[in-house]
Amino acid sequence: MNPLLTALAALLRLSGAVLTLLAACLALAAQGGRFSDRLDVLTHFSPIWLGMAVAGLCLWVLAGGRHWLRITPVAAFVGLLAAGGLMAPELTRSRGPAPPESGETLKLIQFNLWGRAGNADGMVDWIRDQDADILVFEEAFARTGGVARALKSSYPYQISCADPAPCSTMILSRIKPVSHRGLGAVDNPDWLSGAVARFRTERGDFSVIGVHYTWPLPAGPQQQQTRRLTRVLDTLPRDSAIVAGDFNSTPWSFSLRRQDQMFGLDRRTHALASWPAAPVSRHHINLPFPVLPIDQVYAGNDWKTVSVERGPKLGSDHYPVVVVLRR
Length: 327
Description:
The protein is an alpha+beta fold. The protein has eight helices and twelve strands.
């Protein structure tokens, strides 16, 4: 055999072994998220561990699938089983009953505008075309700060998370809220970037909460925010409540699973990947599709899901999420 081809095959086998072993180790370690918030950070990247296992196995097969690196398919199987097992409950979760044919319909857009985004005009045009009833924004300042201002005529009621002070998490609506408040002040140790608004229609009252969670690292603060938000929900009628935001948490994490139970609401976003929409890392890697579903929308039993869709790239590092509910 040509020495060059032999060396290339050996390199492919070695690369496949490294990828599959790394995927298996990380996916197995992620299982520790059941009891450790630190290990739970690894669960968010389950699609990546699964992809690494598949890629490593493909390299091994391409190289002929021989030699002592036959441990590669074993490691690939472990990685696929561990990572796939974390994702399976979300991918097989019921989407709930069909919505009624008639009733009050509510269209909501959840969107992290990303303060560094530069296409504010494109965002405004797309949002106007959607003709939604409620908008929940995060990172609504910096270069995208003009989005809320530009929408003032269409959405005159704009509530921020430190209302009446400026704050980057906002709820915008067409109808006047009966009441509203921010969920904390910046100097409050119990701070949560969020806002609550209560609305009244012919069908009765309903509340909307918009939030922006911190990152899952370091472990602990994100879980504290879940407990804080649960206490807020305890003050509201849950059956009619809606919660939307950038939770920086994926549905295969144990933290989000526990949050689902604590909220007592049905999460309407089913593995809907919304990040990244912009190049990532200092090398500006532009992924062809989003990988992580970190933007979530919850609603109480009064609301049935009509549709949940991901919007287009608009210059943010997040895709918008468009949800239509009916009660």
